[in-house]
Amino acid sequence: MTAAVLSGRELAAAIRAETTAEAARLSAAGTAPTLAVVVATADESSAWYVRSIARAAEQVGIACDVVDLGQEATGPEIRRTLDALSADDRVHGIILQTPLPPGVDAQEMALAIRFDKDVDGANPLSLGRLAAGLPAFAPATAEAVVRILEHHGVELAGRHVAVVGRSTVVGKPAAHLLLDRNATVTVCHSRTRDLAAVTSAADVVVAAAGRIGLITADHVAPGAVVVDVGTNPTEDGELVGDVDAASVAEKAGALTPVPGGVGPVTTALLLAHTVQAASALRRA
User: Fold this and answer.
1) For residue 34, what pLDDT band results from cuts at 50, 70 and 90?
2) d(Cα 204, Cα 186) in Å, to the nearest integer?
């Protein structure tokens, strides 16, 4: 058995096309969708990611303002910036890029992001609203997991999904989104006993732990669908996932690639969320 490849590139292109059309409509009506990215780090991988978001935003007709506070920024300074952007009617989406300076708590800072501009679901209020079934933007990576599965026709209702990882960025919100699709969800983490026994009993495995090669062929059932959320840099500058793709591909029924799977959809959804926020705020 060789796993089918669940690429995210076609889905990302479709989302970008829809976003481009809506951004043009809003701009013609006098509302220019605008995304603000707040940065307080000198981390090069973070800088690369912010540049990629800015390029992608420009391609779909979204203005992207990068607010670089520098790696010496204090918590109060970051908080004031987020407060100001939340109050600025010209800004429709806000992202707080991590990592933050030592001693600055990301969740505490994210509380300053107005939830209807919180396009990457960073504010704990957004996660709470998501869990309660209220309108909120899900973290884009978590939503990308579900959108890829749906795009490729993977049935979720009544299926057992094992999510490996319990972060508020991917694991927990992905679990809520999967529950909304009537999946039966098990969330695994570092203290899960006999991880392979749990994941190999699942129809779908979502690997989002941030550990290279954590999921091997022993962790998946024959024919299972595997979504690899991992984006782990190697010493030679490449990206690899949380899944040992070589062994898993010989046993699973379908597998997302790294890169080219969840990543492109995540970026596309961030921009889609920004346009959705602009449209909602225009009507408010």
Assistant:
1) very high
2) 10
Question: Strand pairing partners for 36?
Answer: 65, 94
Print burial letters for 163-202: b (CB count within 10 Å at least 16), e (below 16): bbbbbbbbbbbbbbbbeebebebbbbeeebeebeebbbeb
Q: Identify whether the C-beta of residue 271 lies closer than 8 Å to the C-beta of residue 17.
A: no
Answer yes or no: is pLDDT of 177 > 80: yes
Q: What is the pLDDT of residues 184-240, one digit of tens each?
A: 999 999 999 999 999 999 999 999 999 999 999 999 999 999 999 999 888 887 889
Q: Which of 103, 85, 71 is nearest to 34 (CA)?
A: 85
Q: What's the rounded Cα separation, in Å, for the pair 265 and 41?
A: 25
The per-residue pLDDT for 236 is: 85
Predicted TM-score (pTM) of the model is: 0.95
pLDDT tens digit string along 90-118? 999 999 999 999 999 999 999 999 999 99
The C-alpha atoms of residue 26 and residue 60 are separated, in whole angstroms, by 12
* Cα gap 34→52, rounded to integer Å: 16
> Under a CB-based contact definition with an 8 Å cutoff, are residues 183 and 204 in contact?
yes
**What does the alpha-carbon distance between residue 227 and residue 146 come to, in Å, rounded to a whole number?**
9
Contact between 144 and 265 under an 8 Å Cβ cutoff? The reply is yes
Query: Helices 171-180 and 124-131, interaxial angle, to 10°?
Result: 20
CA–CA separation, 221 vs 3, rounded Å? 12
